[in-house]
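Hi again,

Forgot to attach this to my earlier email, sorry! This is the prediction with iron/sulfur cluster bound. I've pasted everything inline since the attachment limit keeps bouncing my files.
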Amino acid sequence: MLKALYVHIPFCSYKCPYCDFVSLVDPPVNPNDYIDLLIEEAKLYSNTDRRIETLYLGGGTPTLLEPDQIGYTIEGLDRVLDLSKVREITVECNPETYRKKDFKRLRSFGVNRLSIGAQSFTEKGLKALGRKHSVRDILRCYEEAMEAGFENINVDLIYAYPGQKPEDIDRELELLERLRPEHVSAYMLTPYENTPLGVSIKGGLIETPQEEELERLYERLWRGLKSLGYSRYEISNWSLKGFECRHNLVYWSVEEFLGLGVSAWGFVGGRRYGNTKNILLYAKAVREKKKPVCEELYLSDADIFEEFIMLRLRLKEGLPHSFRGLIPHHLWPFFEEGKNGIGIREEFMLLSNEIIAEVLVYNSHRTLSEVRNG
Ligand code: SF4
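C-alpha coordinates for the complex follow:
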Protein backbone atom coordinates (compact mmCIF):
# COMPACT_ATOMS: atom_id res chain seq x y z
CA MET A 1 0.00 0.00 0.00
CA LEU A 2 1.35 3.45 -0.94
CA LYS A 3 2.16 5.60 2.07
CA ALA A 4 3.94 8.56 0.49
CA LEU A 5 4.11 10.58 -2.71
CA TYR A 6 7.27 12.17 -4.13
CA VAL A 7 7.06 14.69 -6.99
CA HIS A 8 10.16 15.76 -8.89
CA ILE A 9 10.31 19.34 -10.21
CA PRO A 10 13.34 19.39 -12.52
CA PHE A 11 13.87 23.14 -12.99
CA CYS A 12 16.82 25.19 -11.75
CA SER A 13 18.08 28.70 -12.51
CA TYR A 14 21.69 27.47 -12.66
CA LYS A 15 23.52 24.17 -12.33
CA CYS A 16 25.60 23.65 -9.20
CA PRO A 17 28.97 22.04 -10.00
CA TYR A 18 28.43 19.10 -7.61
CA CYS A 19 24.83 18.34 -8.59
CA ASP A 20 23.92 14.91 -9.84
CA PHE A 21 20.14 15.43 -9.85
CA VAL A 22 18.08 15.84 -12.98
CA SER A 23 17.68 19.61 -13.06
CA LEU A 24 17.30 21.68 -16.20
CA VAL A 25 18.18 25.33 -16.63
CA ASP A 26 16.59 25.69 -20.04
CA PRO A 27 13.94 22.96 -20.14
CA PRO A 28 12.31 21.98 -23.43
CA VAL A 29 8.98 21.50 -21.64
CA ASN A 30 7.41 24.52 -19.98
CA PRO A 31 6.41 24.36 -16.31
CA ASN A 32 2.64 24.48 -16.87
CA ASP A 33 2.80 21.61 -19.34
CA TYR A 34 5.04 19.69 -16.96
CA ILE A 35 2.52 20.08 -14.12
CA ASP A 36 -0.26 18.76 -16.38
CA LEU A 37 1.98 15.79 -17.24
CA LEU A 38 2.50 15.05 -13.53
CA ILE A 39 -1.25 14.94 -13.01
CA GLU A 40 -1.68 12.71 -16.08
CA GLU A 41 1.07 10.40 -14.78
CA ALA A 42 -0.71 10.21 -11.40
CA LYS A 43 -3.83 8.94 -13.23
CA LEU A 44 -1.82 5.92 -14.39
CA TYR A 45 -1.61 4.90 -10.71
CA SER A 46 -5.17 5.79 -9.69
CA ASN A 47 -6.09 2.11 -9.15
CA THR A 48 -3.18 1.46 -6.80
CA ASP A 49 -4.01 0.65 -3.19
CA ARG A 50 -3.00 3.68 -1.13
CA ARG A 51 -3.29 5.73 1.99
CA ILE A 52 -0.94 8.61 1.27
CA GLU A 53 0.25 10.39 4.42
CA THR A 54 3.11 12.53 3.15
CA LEU A 55 3.77 14.57 0.02
CA TYR A 56 7.24 15.84 -0.89
CA LEU A 57 7.99 18.22 -3.76
CA GLY A 58 11.70 18.02 -4.46
CA GLY A 59 13.98 18.88 -7.28
CA GLY A 60 15.52 20.73 -8.92
CA THR A 61 14.06 23.86 -7.41
CA PRO A 62 10.31 23.57 -6.81
CA THR A 63 10.20 27.22 -5.75
CA LEU A 64 11.09 28.27 -9.28
CA LEU A 65 7.39 27.56 -9.80
CA GLU A 66 4.98 30.27 -8.67
CA PRO A 67 3.16 29.39 -5.43
CA ASP A 68 -0.08 29.13 -7.42
CA GLN A 69 1.52 26.59 -9.76
CA ILE A 70 2.49 24.52 -6.72
CA GLY A 71 -1.06 24.88 -5.40
CA TYR A 72 -2.46 23.78 -8.76
CA THR A 73 -0.15 20.74 -8.67
CA ILE A 74 -1.25 19.74 -5.17
CA GLU A 75 -4.93 20.20 -5.99
CA GLY A 76 -4.60 18.22 -9.21
CA LEU A 77 -2.84 15.34 -7.47
CA ASP A 78 -5.43 15.41 -4.70
CA ARG A 79 -8.25 15.00 -7.23
CA VAL A 80 -6.56 11.93 -8.71
CA LEU A 81 -4.93 10.24 -5.71
CA ASP A 82 -6.88 11.60 -2.69
CA LEU A 83 -4.48 13.43 -0.39
CA SER A 84 -7.02 13.88 2.40
CA LYS A 85 -4.94 11.75 4.81
CA VAL A 86 -1.75 13.68 4.16
CA ARG A 87 -0.24 15.12 7.35
CA GLU A 88 3.03 16.49 6.02
CA ILE A 89 3.59 18.43 2.80
CA THR A 90 7.20 19.47 2.22
CA VAL A 91 8.45 21.80 -0.48
CA GLU A 92 12.16 22.21 -1.18
CA CYS A 93 13.11 25.85 -1.50
CA ASN A 94 16.23 27.64 -2.68
CA PRO A 95 17.09 30.66 -0.51
CA GLU A 96 16.94 33.26 -3.27
CA THR A 97 13.55 32.36 -4.69
CA TYR A 98 10.54 33.18 -2.46
CA ARG A 99 9.52 36.19 -0.36
CA LYS A 100 7.13 36.35 2.57
CA LYS A 101 4.00 36.72 0.42
CA ASP A 102 4.99 33.64 -1.59
CA PHE A 103 5.49 31.61 1.59
CA LYS A 104 2.09 32.75 2.84
CA ARG A 105 0.47 31.64 -0.40
CA LEU A 106 2.26 28.31 -0.15
CA ARG A 107 0.88 27.82 3.36
CA SER A 108 -2.64 28.41 2.00
CA PHE A 109 -2.27 25.22 -0.08
CA GLY A 110 -1.53 23.14 3.02
CA VAL A 111 2.26 23.12 2.70
CA ASN A 112 3.41 22.75 6.32
CA ARG A 113 7.10 21.91 5.98
CA LEU A 114 9.84 23.75 4.15
CA SER A 115 13.25 22.38 3.26
CA ILE A 116 15.70 25.22 2.60
CA GLY A 117 18.72 24.39 0.45
CA ALA A 118 21.14 26.53 2.46
CA GLN A 119 24.12 24.13 2.03
CA SER A 120 26.43 26.34 4.12
CA PHE A 121 26.17 29.32 6.48
CA THR A 122 29.59 30.56 5.38
CA GLU A 123 30.44 32.51 2.23
CA LYS A 124 33.52 30.29 1.98
CA GLY A 125 31.37 27.15 1.86
CA LEU A 126 28.89 28.63 -0.63
CA LYS A 127 31.77 29.66 -2.90
CA ALA A 128 33.44 26.24 -2.69
CA LEU A 129 30.12 24.61 -3.61
CA GLY A 130 29.46 27.06 -6.44
CA ARG A 131 26.19 28.27 -4.95
CA LYS A 132 24.95 31.64 -6.17
CA HIS A 133 23.08 32.73 -3.06
CA SER A 134 24.64 34.43 -0.05
CA VAL A 135 24.41 33.80 3.69
CA ARG A 136 22.20 36.90 3.85
CA ASP A 137 19.81 35.33 1.34
CA ILE A 138 19.50 32.27 3.59
CA LEU A 139 18.79 34.37 6.68
CA ARG A 140 16.23 36.48 4.86
CA CYS A 141 14.56 33.41 3.40
CA TYR A 142 14.43 31.69 6.78
CA GLU A 143 13.06 34.72 8.60
CA GLU A 144 10.40 35.46 5.98
CA ALA A 145 9.29 31.82 5.96
CA MET A 146 8.87 31.97 9.73
CA GLU A 147 6.98 35.25 9.53
CA ALA A 148 4.67 33.58 7.00
CA GLY A 149 3.86 30.93 9.59
CA PHE A 150 6.15 27.98 8.82
CA GLU A 151 6.79 26.09 12.04
CA ASN A 152 8.58 23.09 10.62
CA ILE A 153 11.69 24.00 8.63
CA ASN A 154 14.58 21.85 7.52
CA VAL A 155 17.95 23.29 6.60
CA ASP A 156 20.14 21.29 4.19
CA LEU A 157 23.87 21.51 4.77
CA ILE A 158 26.85 19.98 2.97
CA TYR A 159 30.09 19.31 4.81
CA ALA A 160 33.54 18.15 3.72
CA TYR A 161 33.59 20.65 0.86
CA PRO A 162 37.05 21.61 -0.50
CA GLY A 163 38.99 23.66 2.01
CA GLN A 164 36.59 23.19 4.92
CA LYS A 165 38.23 23.26 8.36
CA PRO A 166 36.77 22.09 11.67
CA GLU A 167 36.41 25.71 12.82
CA ASP A 168 34.14 26.37 9.79
CA ILE A 169 31.71 23.91 11.34
CA ASP A 170 31.47 26.26 14.34
CA ARG A 171 30.11 29.01 12.09
CA GLU A 172 27.45 26.62 10.77
CA LEU A 173 26.54 25.76 14.35
CA GLU A 174 26.38 29.43 15.40
CA LEU A 175 23.72 30.16 12.82
CA LEU A 176 21.86 26.95 13.55
CA GLU A 177 21.75 28.03 17.18
CA ARG A 178 20.40 31.44 16.16
CA LEU A 179 17.74 30.11 13.78
CA ARG A 180 16.90 26.83 15.53
CA PRO A 181 15.35 25.02 12.55
CA GLU A 182 13.29 22.03 13.57
CA HIS A 183 15.32 19.74 11.32
CA VAL A 184 18.84 19.63 9.88
CA SER A 185 20.04 17.41 7.04
CA ALA A 186 23.82 17.41 6.83
CA TYR A 187 25.30 15.41 3.98
CA MET A 188 28.93 14.77 3.26
CA LEU A 189 29.88 16.12 -0.19
CA THR A 190 29.80 13.30 -2.74
CA PRO A 191 32.08 14.07 -5.70
CA TYR A 192 30.06 12.36 -8.45
CA GLU A 193 32.26 11.66 -11.43
CA ASN A 194 29.69 13.03 -13.87
CA THR A 195 29.82 16.52 -12.32
CA PRO A 196 32.36 19.32 -12.88
CA LEU A 197 33.38 19.32 -9.21
CA GLY A 198 33.75 15.53 -9.23
CA VAL A 199 35.98 15.70 -12.31
CA SER A 200 38.20 18.36 -10.70
CA ILE A 201 38.51 16.35 -7.49
CA LYS A 202 39.24 13.13 -9.33
CA GLY A 203 41.82 14.90 -11.51
CA GLY A 204 43.59 16.21 -8.41
CA LEU A 205 42.84 19.86 -9.24
CA ILE A 206 40.80 20.32 -6.07
CA GLU A 207 41.22 18.54 -2.74
CA THR A 208 38.55 17.60 -0.26
CA PRO A 209 39.16 16.80 3.42
CA GLN A 210 40.54 13.29 3.88
CA GLU A 211 40.20 10.70 6.64
CA GLU A 212 41.40 12.32 9.88
CA GLU A 213 40.20 15.75 8.83
CA LEU A 214 36.89 14.22 7.80
CA GLU A 215 36.54 12.55 11.17
CA ARG A 216 37.25 15.86 12.91
CA LEU A 217 34.63 17.64 10.80
CA TYR A 218 32.01 15.00 11.45
CA GLU A 219 32.74 14.84 15.17
CA ARG A 220 32.54 18.62 15.52
CA LEU A 221 29.26 18.56 13.65
CA TRP A 222 27.47 15.83 15.56
CA ARG A 223 28.73 16.93 18.94
CA GLY A 224 27.69 20.50 18.15
CA LEU A 225 24.23 19.49 16.95
CA LYS A 226 23.78 17.34 20.03
CA SER A 227 24.71 20.22 22.31
CA LEU A 228 22.08 22.35 20.56
CA GLY A 229 19.41 19.81 21.45
CA TYR A 230 19.17 17.95 18.14
CA SER A 231 19.05 14.21 18.04
CA ARG A 232 20.24 12.22 15.08
CA TYR A 233 17.59 9.79 13.94
CA GLU A 234 19.27 8.80 10.65
CA ILE A 235 22.86 8.84 9.39
CA SER A 236 22.58 12.36 7.95
CA ASN A 237 19.46 13.73 9.64
CA TRP A 238 18.92 15.46 12.96
CA SER A 239 15.78 16.95 14.43
CA LEU A 240 14.28 18.52 17.49
CA LYS A 241 11.95 16.14 19.31
CA GLY A 242 8.89 15.26 17.27
CA PHE A 243 10.13 16.85 14.02
CA GLU A 244 11.58 13.79 12.25
CA CYS A 245 10.70 13.89 8.55
CA ARG A 246 7.72 11.55 8.16
CA HIS A 247 8.26 11.30 4.42
CA ASN A 248 11.83 10.06 4.66
CA LEU A 249 10.86 7.63 7.40
CA VAL A 250 8.60 5.93 4.83
CA TYR A 251 11.66 5.33 2.61
CA TRP A 252 13.82 4.10 5.47
CA SER A 253 11.13 1.78 6.78
CA VAL A 254 10.89 0.07 3.35
CA GLU A 255 7.25 1.11 2.91
CA GLU A 256 5.77 1.74 -0.51
CA PHE A 257 5.68 5.17 -2.14
CA LEU A 258 4.84 6.66 -5.50
CA GLY A 259 7.37 8.82 -7.34
CA LEU A 260 6.12 11.09 -10.11
CA GLY A 261 8.06 13.17 -12.61
CA VAL A 262 11.17 12.88 -14.67
CA SER A 263 13.87 10.75 -12.94
CA ALA A 264 11.62 9.98 -9.93
CA TRP A 265 11.95 6.67 -8.13
CA GLY A 266 9.08 4.72 -6.61
CA PHE A 267 8.31 1.48 -4.80
CA VAL A 268 4.91 0.12 -5.78
CA GLY A 269 3.53 -3.40 -5.48
CA GLY A 270 6.90 -4.89 -4.45
CA ARG A 271 8.59 -3.30 -7.47
CA ARG A 272 11.20 -0.55 -7.40
CA TYR A 273 11.08 1.59 -10.53
CA GLY A 274 12.87 4.60 -11.95
CA ASN A 275 11.38 7.05 -14.43
CA THR A 276 13.31 8.16 -17.47
CA LYS A 277 15.76 11.02 -16.89
CA ASN A 278 14.97 12.55 -20.28
CA ILE A 279 12.17 15.08 -20.04
CA LEU A 280 11.16 14.72 -23.71
CA LEU A 281 10.86 10.93 -23.38
CA TYR A 282 8.96 11.47 -20.13
CA ALA A 283 6.49 13.81 -21.85
CA LYS A 284 6.06 11.46 -24.81
CA ALA A 285 5.32 8.43 -22.63
CA VAL A 286 2.83 10.22 -20.41
CA ARG A 287 1.03 11.76 -23.42
CA GLU A 288 0.68 8.22 -24.80
CA LYS A 289 -0.74 7.19 -21.40
CA LYS A 290 2.24 4.96 -20.66
CA LYS A 291 4.19 4.90 -17.43
CA PRO A 292 7.50 6.68 -18.15
CA VAL A 293 9.48 3.94 -16.42
CA CYS A 294 12.91 3.00 -17.73
CA GLU A 295 14.21 0.78 -14.90
CA GLU A 296 12.38 -1.65 -12.69
CA LEU A 297 13.22 -4.36 -10.25
CA TYR A 298 10.91 -6.81 -8.55
CA LEU A 299 12.31 -7.44 -5.12
CA SER A 300 12.76 -11.05 -4.08
CA ASP A 301 12.49 -12.04 -0.39
CA ALA A 302 16.27 -11.88 -0.18
CA ASP A 303 16.31 -8.37 -1.75
CA ILE A 304 13.68 -7.13 0.69
CA PHE A 305 15.72 -8.54 3.57
CA GLU A 306 18.85 -6.78 2.32
CA GLU A 307 17.03 -3.47 1.90
CA PHE A 308 15.43 -3.81 5.30
CA ILE A 309 18.81 -4.29 6.99
CA MET A 310 20.48 -1.55 4.96
CA LEU A 311 17.77 1.04 5.49
CA ARG A 312 17.01 0.22 9.13
CA LEU A 313 20.68 0.45 10.07
CA ARG A 314 20.70 4.00 8.71
CA LEU A 315 18.27 4.84 11.51
CA LYS A 316 19.34 5.53 15.06
CA GLU A 317 16.74 3.06 16.30
CA GLY A 318 18.25 0.50 13.96
CA LEU A 319 17.02 -3.07 14.02
CA PRO A 320 14.26 -4.32 16.33
CA HIS A 321 15.60 -6.04 19.48
CA SER A 322 14.30 -9.36 18.21
CA PHE A 323 16.84 -9.12 15.33
CA ARG A 324 19.90 -8.98 17.62
CA GLY A 325 21.10 -12.38 16.35
CA LEU A 326 21.81 -10.77 12.96
CA ILE A 327 24.73 -8.81 14.33
CA PRO A 328 28.01 -10.76 14.28
CA HIS A 329 29.84 -10.92 17.60
CA HIS A 330 32.89 -8.95 16.45
CA LEU A 331 30.72 -5.99 15.39
CA TRP A 332 28.96 -5.49 18.74
CA PRO A 333 31.40 -2.75 19.90
CA PHE A 334 30.06 -0.60 17.03
CA PHE A 335 26.44 -0.95 18.19
CA GLU A 336 24.34 0.22 21.07
CA GLU A 337 20.96 -0.98 22.31
CA GLY A 338 18.35 1.71 22.83
CA LYS A 339 14.75 1.59 24.02
CA ASN A 340 13.41 0.88 20.53
CA GLY A 341 16.18 -1.07 18.85
CA ILE A 342 19.84 -1.70 18.13
CA GLY A 343 21.67 0.94 16.12
CA ILE A 344 25.18 1.96 15.11
CA ARG A 345 26.88 4.21 17.67
CA GLU A 346 27.10 7.88 16.76
CA GLU A 347 30.92 7.92 16.78
CA PHE A 348 31.06 5.13 14.18
CA MET A 349 28.63 6.66 11.71
CA LEU A 350 31.38 7.45 9.22
CA LEU A 351 32.02 3.70 9.07
CA SER A 352 28.36 2.84 8.63
CA ASN A 353 28.73 1.65 5.01
CA GLU A 354 31.44 -0.84 5.99
CA ILE A 355 29.54 -2.00 9.09
CA ILE A 356 26.30 -2.50 7.16
CA ALA A 357 28.17 -4.40 4.43
CA GLU A 358 29.57 -6.80 7.03
CA VAL A 359 26.16 -7.38 8.58
CA LEU A 360 24.80 -8.18 5.12
CA VAL A 361 27.56 -10.65 4.31
CA TYR A 362 27.04 -12.36 7.68
CA ASN A 363 23.33 -12.82 6.91
CA SER A 364 23.52 -13.41 3.17
CA HIS A 365 21.67 -16.77 3.38
CA ARG A 366 18.56 -15.36 5.13
CA THR A 367 15.22 -13.80 4.15
CA LEU A 368 13.08 -11.36 6.08
CA SER A 369 10.15 -13.74 6.59
CA GLU A 370 12.52 -16.41 7.89
CA VAL A 371 13.98 -13.96 10.43
CA ARG A 372 10.55 -12.64 11.45
CA ASN A 373 9.22 -16.15 11.97
CA GLY A 374 12.25 -17.04 14.10
S1 SF4 B 1 19.85 23.97 -6.88
FE1 SF4 B 1 19.86 21.83 -6.19
S2 SF4 B 1 18.96 20.66 -7.87
FE2 SF4 B 1 19.48 22.69 -8.68
S3 SF4 B 1 21.49 22.43 -9.60
FE3 SF4 B 1 21.82 23.13 -7.49
S4 SF4 B 1 22.01 21.24 -6.26
FE4 SF4 B 1 21.13 20.67 -8.24
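Residues 12, 15-16, 19, 21, 23, 59-61, 94, 117 surround iron/sulfur cluster (CB under 6 Å). The domain at 2-250 is CATH 3.20.20.70 (TIM Barrel).

That should be everything now.

G.
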